[in-house]
Amino acid sequence: MSVRGLAAAVPVASHTRGVLLVAFLAFLVVMLLLCLMVGPEKDQIDAYYGGGRRIGLLGNALALAGVCIPAGTVLGTTGTVALFGYDGIFISLSTLLSLGVLLLLVNPLRRRGRFTIGDVLAHRAAGPAVRIASGVVAIAVCLPLLMFELASVGVSVALLLGLTGSSAQQVITVMIGLLIISATVFGGMRCTSALQIIKNIVLFSACAVVAMLVMSKFSWSVDLLLDSASRNSARPAGYFSQGLSKQPDVSNAAADLDFVGLVLTIILGVASMPHVIMRVNTLPALSSATTAVRHVINIVAAFVLTAIVIGLGSAALVGSRSIVSVDPGGTSALMLLAGSLAGGTSTTGGTWLFVLVACAVFATILATTASVTLAAAAAVAHDIYAQVLHGGAEEEVEVSAARWAAAGLGALGVVLAVSVQGWNIQFLTTLALSISASSVLPALVYSLFWNSYTRTGLLWTLYGGLACSAALQALSPAFTGRPDALFPDWDMNWYPLQSVALVSVPVGFLLGWVTSRYGNPEKATRLRLNMPKRLNSQMGGSLGPASQVPETTGDLFHRPGPM
Predict the structure, then answer these.
(1) I need a labelling partner for 418 at 20 to 30 A (CA). Which of 243, 279, 306, 366 fits?
(2) What confidence tens digit (pLDDT) does each residue in 200-213 have?
(3) Separation CA 520–CA 509 (nearest Å)
C-alpha cells in the first residue's frame, strides 16, 4: 500500500498546513508526556508487558479494537470500497470475521498465556527450541509491519506538511521513530494502551463526522449514495459484482483465487498476530476475556460500517478515476474525501475536518507501531533472553533487557524504513499476515485443542509455515516481474498468485499434523493444563485458588520451580 497520495492531490491551503504542523507538534508532545506519566512505576515484568492488568473492561476493549484496526486497515478499507465496490466491502468485512476466530481462541489463550506467544506454546513442549522458534516467528511478523508503518508515517506527514523531498521524509521518519521508541522503552504496555485508546476515540470521531457529512450530501438516502457511487466508478455495471479488483492481465481463475486468498489471509492472520495475542493477555481476568472480545466486535463493526460509507462516499463525490490517478491502491480516498467536504481546506470547517482526519491517521500509525514494537521486544527479551539464555532472569534484569530490545528493534525498523522509502512495500503487510496465519495460528490451534500435538510438530509448524510464506511471497508477482512489484525489473514469478495463504496455511497445518503423528514418539509431550502457583496469583487468581492449581513438573529446562 502506498501512502504517497495521502495529501499530494489534495489542494491543502497554506494556513491548513500551518494548523497541521501545530496539531502534529502538540500531539507529539502530549504523547511523549503521556508515556512518561503512565509508564510502570517499578521494573516489574507484569507491569511492563501487561500494564499490571489494571485497565478496565472498556479500556481493554478499546485498546484491543485499536490493535485490530491498524493504519493499513484505516486507509485501505476506504480505498478498496471506493475503487472495487463489492470486492472492497467483502474485504472490509474480513476484518470483522477475523474477530470470530479470536473469539474462539480467547478463553484458552487467556487461561494459558502470560505475556507472549511463547508462553502459550511452552505449555505444550518444554525446552529452549520452542521459545527460540516462537521468538523468531514473532520477529518475522512484527518487523515487516514496523518497516511499513514507519515508512508510511514519514511519507504521509511530509506530504501533509508540504515537504516533497526524500530527505525530508527520511528525517520525519527518524524523528517519529525516535518518539515511538521512547514511548515503548519508557511506557511499556500502559503507554501503548493509552495510545490505542486515544487513537480509537480520535479515529471514531473523525470517521463518524465524515460519514455523517457524506450521508447529508445524499439526503440520508442509502439508495442515492449507492447509485452515485456506482455511476462515478470505473465500471458502473460491475461495481456491485464480484471481480472488479481483478488485474487486466490476470486470468479469471487466478483473480478469484487471489481474492479468496486475500480474504483468508485477513481472517486467519489478524487474530493470531503477536501484538494481538499480547493484548489478549493483558485482560484482567479469564471471566472478562469473552466479554471484552464481544465488545471489540461491536466496536470494529461500527468502524467497518462507517468505513464502507466513507468508501462509497469517496467513489460518489471524488470519483474512482480521480482516486486512481493519485494512488492506484486507493489509500488516498479518505484524505481526498476529507479535503473536498465542508467546503474544502480553504474554509474554516474544511480545514478543521481535514486536520481531524489527518490526526486520526497519524495517531493510528503511532499506536500500531508502538504495539508492534513492544510485541517484538517481548519476544526477544522474555522468550529468548530471559527464558533461554538465563533460564528465568530477575524481573529488573528482564525489564531492562526488554527496553534495550525495544530500542534496538525500533532503531532497526527506522533504518530499514528509511532505506526502503520510495519503494512499493505494500506487500509487507500481506506477508506479515500470511506468516501469522501459516505458522502462529496452526501452532496455537493444535497446542490449545489437540492433545497429541508434539514438540516436533510444533517446531515444524512454526518454521515450516514461516519458510513457506516467505518463499512463496518472494516468488510471487508482488515481489518481482510486475510494474507495481518491489523489484519490477526482476522476473522470478514462479508462483502465479499474489496471495500465498491458500498454500502456506494448509502447509502449516499439514506439517504440524504429519510430524506429530509420524515423528519421534519419544519427543511427544502431553498438554499441561496446570500452571505454577506463582503465575496463577500474578494473574489475579483467574484460574481459581492456588490450592486447586497443581505444580508443574518443571520449568523450561525441566527444573523444579515456577516457569
Answers:
(1) 279
(2) 888 888 899 999 99
(3) 18
CA-based nearest residue to 20, from 342, 355, 340? 355
Between CA 351 and CA 16 the distance in angstroms is 6
Quote the Cα angle for 487-489-491, to 5°: 85
Do 421 and 3 meet the contact criterion of CB atoms below 8 Å apart?
A: no
According to the 3-state scheme, what is the secondary structure of 498-541? CCCHHHHHHHHHHHHHHHHHHCCHHHCCCCCCCCCHHHHHHCCC
Name the pTM for this structure.
0.83
Residue 393: band (very low, low, confident or very high) from pLDDT cuts 50, 70, 90: low
User: Among 503, 424, 426, 428, which residue's Cα sits nearest to residue 469?
Assistant: 503
Lowest-confidence region among 53-62, 115-124, 277-286, 534-543: 534-543
- Cβ atoms of 235 and 476 within 8 Å: the answer is no
d(CA 148, CA 71) in angstroms, rounded, equals: 10
Compute the distance between CA of residue 483 and CA of residue 517 in angstroms, rounded to an integer.
Answer: 45
The residue behind cell 527520511 is 170
Mean of pLDDT values over 443-455: 90
Contacts for 300-303: CB closer than 8 Å, 24+ residues apart: 300/65, 300/68, 300/69, 300/95, 300/96, 300/99, 301/96, 302/204, 303/65, 303/69, 303/203, 303/204, 303/207
